[in-house]
Amino acid sequence: MANFVKAADAGEVAPGTGKCVTVNGKEIALFNVGGVFHAIDNTCLHRGGPLGEGELDGTTVTCPWHGWQYNVTTGACLTKSDLQVGCYQVKVEGGDIKIALP
Hints:
mainly beta
């Protein structure tokens, strides 16, 4: 069974934006896509850029360092289709955004 851990308050991540959070020592990029929250690993596979600081366009985040793109709903890298960052289940309870960690 997944262990859901609070990552942020729902009001901290406005629609169309992302945020870098640390959950149990792990860096996570948290995104709000039209009121639905998604979480992926925060580290770009190219040079380690912070994905949570990238520009969000629909379900695509662009790494702020070198422009690599990822689908925030799946973690799939759109720049190199054979790569993928970790993707985590998210739920909202009482205004808290919680992420399932293994």
